[in-house]
Design brief:
The complex is a heterodimer of chains A (627) and B (126). Chain A is of the alpha+beta class and 627 residues long. Chain A has two domains: 216 residues, Alpha-Beta Complex (Penicillin-binding protein 2a (Domain 2)), CATH 3.90.1310; 344 residues, DD-peptidase/beta-lactamase superfamily (Beta-lactamase, 3-Layer(aba) Sandwich). In chain A, the strands form eight sheets. In chain A, strands 2, 3, 6, 7, 13, 21 and 22 form a seven-stranded mixed beta sheet that branches. Chain A is elongated, with a radius of gyration of 37 Å. By secondary structure, chain B is mainly alpha-helical. Chain B has a domain of 69 residues. In chain B, 56% of the residues lie in helices and 2% in strands. Chain B is rod-shaped and about 115 Å long. The chains are: A alpha+beta (627), B mainly alpha (126). At the A-B interface, strand 3, strand 11, helix 10, helix 20 and strand 27 of A face helix 1, helix 2 and strand 1 of B.
């Protein structure tokens, strides 16, 4: 009897235990199998944290490693309003002076508020994440954390409950936090600003957090955006309750790859020389704008490129359409500087020789129903004299002799009507119409630089091609890309585009151009004391609404030196000079001379021995004895 | 003849006791070792984190200071400073330059642009 009872009880217990274990087993299967994905995701969310590592944007350096643009680390100050309770005024009072913000405005930001958005949804201004200030230095952040740590709330915290003490502790330690950020700075201010460009900060929202990213908006900052930006890294790890990382549980740790440094061909000393000379010329001639370019003709390296008015990229409010890089964006009729195209083309084909004579019709030449003029009445002029005196009629007659197709071909081969390929955004093509669109008078107008429109850079490249034995070089602005430690990742070599004219024709052309900066030429003001200069002046009347306007000129001088072994080719172009003359030689020649002399001194270019009038150059042997 | 355990002298048998103690020590030691190891991992993790932060800070400082040196050496800054201090410096004229009659050394790669008169165009691509 008792045995049966015992067995029954045992069975009952067994059934109970089986049911209990069955229940537990079901729960186990439910948690571990059926809801595995959901719960493991939840668990990960509770412990795992992903930290984004922003790459540092690369620097922009000049040819000698001087910093033109760099990024400095700053902090973005954020707050978690849910941890502040009702103590917004206290917190705002403590940190507002450090952030240089209005106390009431800051307190408002720290208060979680509900409002209806444009879609009619009720949203908060950020319960856990509010941005308070950007571009805050590390020093200010340290002061801010100290201020938060020393906050007092007018209560004896020792008498408070554990929960209340925890609230105050969290408020002090976690309510205000910072995020690493970077700021783009340009230590030289406006120097080479149009070449370097300027950035903008883009913000992307990821996991409820805003991340800033700097991207270029103009100049090298834009054209070299990809190598400058780098690649972001990330860290997937776990944190403890106090949000401290548990390094042992770090799952993924991919370091950010910083952006590459972009080394330009620009030499900041030469850039400074050019910008200073241009700035000095502005009050004297009061032009609408003025540009200067310095190029090494043998390689096409741009050593300086300046356009006034310019802007300071540190102050975005100074950036206006007027401050664009006119060297590459603006197209104008080149005027007489374009004569180098027709004359060198004619010399190359053998159509003319330097000694050939042309009747310049005493300043009035009727052609195709139009009358062409010279600024002075000339009779017979040789080819050299046509360049020296800048005779429009002489150039027109050479153009007519060269022929329409040849003239077009040479203009095209010199790079007109097409982009030079310089890695800067916004470069214009210029205007060079095909022969079939030419009017009857075009063959006479184009040789004097009318009926075509060019950029300053195209014109300089054409002159540099003559200086370089007829070889047109692609203008270079970026020399290389390198890592922060200086190791070169990519080097850009000088690139020959094509040989436009033969070396002989180029030499003949140089001989003609040497006469321009001499007495009797159009630019004696461009003459240098110790170097032979070759160059060409240009004075083009501006056209508005299809009509040439009196009193509005684009004046220019493009020259190179030493003429027989050119090291530098310099272009000065002034838009609408209003005072002290308007002829290219008169207004741009002195600026050319000023820049050339300073550059020659800086670069230590050997002077032409024939011109060393003061005393012969000292040449010493290894023992210091004069030779 | 089989031994009668009851009749044996009350001698202490060290073997099993030692075995048991050893086992206890092993298990206990392993447990303590495990905890110690975990503690060490945590401690070292904290040290790694602190050193990583310090390294990043030092790298940032290094960059900031080298930038500062570079900016102070820049031609623009030097020119500005020269003018401020009114040192009366002026560029040398060609007659003041003494040129040594010696073979021209190849220009260093990272400073090519300044070696103007000494550069060749051999590197020019066709």
């Amino acid at each position: 009897m008792s045995n049966k009872l015992q067995i029954r009880r045992a069975l009952l217990l067994l059934a109970f235990l089986a049911a209990a274990f069955g229940g537990l087993a079901y729960r186990l299967v439910d948690l571990q199998v059926l809801r595995h994905d959901e719960l493991s995701a939840k668990a990960e969310l509770n412990t795992q944290r992903e930290f984004r590592q922003a790459p540092r944007r690369g620097d922009i350096l000049d040819a000698n490693g001087n910093i033109l643009a760099t990024s400095i680390s700053v902090r973005t100050i954020c707050a978690d309003p849910s941890l502040i309770g009702n103590f917004q005024p206290v917190v705002a009072h403590a940190i507002a002076p450090l952030l240089q913000m209005n106390e009431a405005e800051l307190a408002q930001k720290l208060t979680p508020r509900l409002y209806r958005n444009a879609q009619g949804q009720i949203v908060t201004n950020g319960l856990h994440y509010v941005r308070l200030a950007k571009n805050i230095s590390d020093e200010t952040w340290n002061q801010l954390t100290a201020a938060m740590t020393n906050l007092t709330f007018g209560v004896d915290e020792k008498k408070l409950s554990r929960t209340e003490r925890g609230f105050f502790s969290n408020l002090r330690r976690q309510a205000i936090f910072s995020e690493a950020d970077q700021k783009r700075v340009y230590p030289n201010g406006a120097l080479a600003s149009q070449v370097i460009g300027f950035p903008a900060t883009e913000e992307k929202k990821t996991d409820g957090h805003l991340y800033s990213q700097i991207s270029g908006r103009d100049g090298v900052e834009l054209s070299m955006q990809k190598p400058l930006s780098g690649v972001a890294g990330w860290k997937l790890t776990e944190t403890d309750r106090a949000q401290h990382e548990l390094v042992a549980l770090r799952d993924e740790d991919v370091h950010a790859r910083d952006g590459l440094n972009v080394v330009l061909t620009i030499d900041s000393a030469i850039q400074h020389i050019v910008e200073t000379a241009l700035a000095e010329a502005v009050p004297k001639y009061t032009p609408k704008s003025i540009t200067g370019i310095v190029m090494r003709p043998k390689t096409g390296e741009i050593l300086a490129m300046a356009s006034l008015p310019n802007y300071d990229p540190n102050q975005p409010n100074t950036i206006t359409p007027e401050t664009r890089n006119r060297v590459i964006t603006d197209v104008v009729e080149p005027g007489s500087t374009f004569k180098i195209v027709v004359v060198s083309g004619a010399l190359n084909t053998g159509t003319v020789r330097l000694t050939d004579q042309f009747d310049c019709e005493h300043g009035h030449f009727a052609f195709a129903g139009r009358v062409l003029h010279d600024h002075e009445a000339y009779g017979l002029l040789s080819t050299v004299e046509i360049i020296t005196k800048s005779s429009n009629i002489g150039a027109a007659k050479i153009g007519i002799k060269l022929g329409e197709q040849n003239l077009y071909d040479y203009a095209w081969n010199f790079g007109f009507g097409q982009r030079t390929g310089i890695p800067l955004p916004g470069e214009a093509r210029g205007i060079l119409y095909p022969v079939k669109q030419w009017s009857k008078v075009s063959i006479a107008q184009i040789p004097m630089g009318h009926g075509v429109a060019v950029t300053r850079l195209q014109m300089l490249s054409a002159m540099a091609a003559i200086a370089n034995g007829g070889w047109l070089m692609r203008p270079m602005i970026v020399s290389r890309l390198q890592e922060r430690d200086g190791s070169v990742v990519q080097r850009y070599a000088p690139e020959r585009v094509r040989q436009v004219v033969s070396e002989t024709a180029a030499k003949q052309m140089i001989e003609a151009l040497k006469t321009v900066p001499m007495k009797g030429g159009t630019a004696p003001e461009a003459q240098l004391k110790n170097y032979v200069v070759a160059g060409k002046t240009g004075t083009a009347q501006k056209a508005e609404n299809g009509q040439y306007v009196r009193g509005k000129y684009v004046s220019s001088f493009i020259g190179f030196f030493p003429a027989d072994n050119p090291e530098l080719c310099i272009s000065i172009v002034m838009d609408e000079p209003k005072e002290n003359g308007y002829y290219g030689g008169k207004v741009c020649g002195p600026i050319f001379r000023d820049i050339a002399e300073r550059c020659a001194s800086y670069l230590n270019i050997p002077p032409d021995p024939k011109l060393m009038t003061n005393s012969p150059p000292l040449v010493a042997d290894n023992n210091g004895r004069r030779l | 003849m089989a031994k009668n355990r009851k009749n044996q002298a009350a001698a202490i048998r060290f073997g099993p006791a030692l075995k048991a103690s050893f086992l206890c020590l092993l298990i206990g030691g392993s447990a303590v070792g495990y905890v110690w190891q975990k503690n060490e991992i945590y401690r070292l993790g904290q040290q790694i984190r602190q050193r990583e932060t310090k390294l990043a800070q030092l790298q940032g400082d290094n960059k900031r200071l080298s930038d500062q040196i570079s900016i102070l050496h820049s031609p623009v800054m030097l020119d500005r400073r020269t003018k401020e201090l009114q040192l009366g410096l002026a560029p040398a004229t060609p007659v003041q330059v003494v040129r040594l009659d010696e073979p021209v050394a190849p220009a260093p790669q990272n400073n090519m642009s300044r070696q103007f008169s000494q550069r060749s165009v051999n590197s020019v691509t066709p």
